[in-house]
Amino acid sequence: MPLPSGMSACNLCVEIMTGTTWVDVSDSMSVVEPPESARTQGEAYVFGEDVALLAAGKLKPIEVTMRGVWAEGTADPFYSAYLAHTTPCGALLAVRWSPAGCATSSDAFSTHTTASRMTNLTYVGGDASDANPLMYQFVVRTPSILRAAWA
Q: What φ, ψ does residue 118 adopt, rounded to 5°?
């Protein structure tokens, strides 16, 4: 079997949704931390066996952490995240990313588009001795990650 071609994050495309429309925020976001999916597990022990009996349950909710480069102005995705986070009881904020870019038919992964909510927002800060761009971070909690072709 031949080795697959390696892929970097160079072409990664990122979008957010706060209503019904996906908005490309690739020029502002710098990190999509790979989310981890886990299933609940159970176990029980019986007297007649030396090992546990195992059972699998439902998939646990998933958290996706996003980091962006701060830019002053309401077009910055930070403001969409801020509004979703500060809306009483939270508001929808879904994220979608594609490792191969925003090309039709590329693999795309997204949080649930009707049930994703922000759980954390890290405001922009700074350090006078640091020359790196200012960053912010937010976490989106979702019941599942969906995979589909980019459209």
A: -75, 140
